[in-house]
Amino acid sequence: MKRLLTLVLCAAALPAYAGCPAPEQWARDFQKRHADFHWNAKRHDPALFTPAFDAVLRKEWAYAKGEVGRLDYDPWLGAQDGDIAEPIAFEAESVQEDAAVVAMRYAFVLDPGAAPGKHAAHLALKKEGARCWRLDDFITPRGDSLMRLFAGDPEQPEAGPADKASGAR
Question: What's the pLDDT tens digit per position in 63-74?
């Protein structure tokens, strides 16, 4: 009886997120089920995002009003056109107790006859309190942070690639 009580108490003492999937698996499942997270407010599940990232998503949707907002390309692709092709790999680039960065590496196909390019999108994940992994930022293959982009002032558009290279705003 004492052993059973000890086991029950030990199990209850484990953090609630001890059963969380590995960051790579969480990212794979997220991409498969929620690839439209950046624009589809109707399917939005706030439990998948940190409060800060959830707030910038909502800000972007309010700004865009169902149209193209600050992001004029698919963040998974880093382009307006093209497809994700095999092989697709989800690799943890860094993992800590409460934070992880997972790279989704894949073949990018723009034209069916052309050789595919190699792209990677990065998912910055966090655990907060007793919660499992949640998306805290998304870095496109272009290197754009959706957190930074969506949190920006709608009256101050992001600098274009030439402006970024020169440091101008």
Answer: 988 888 899 999
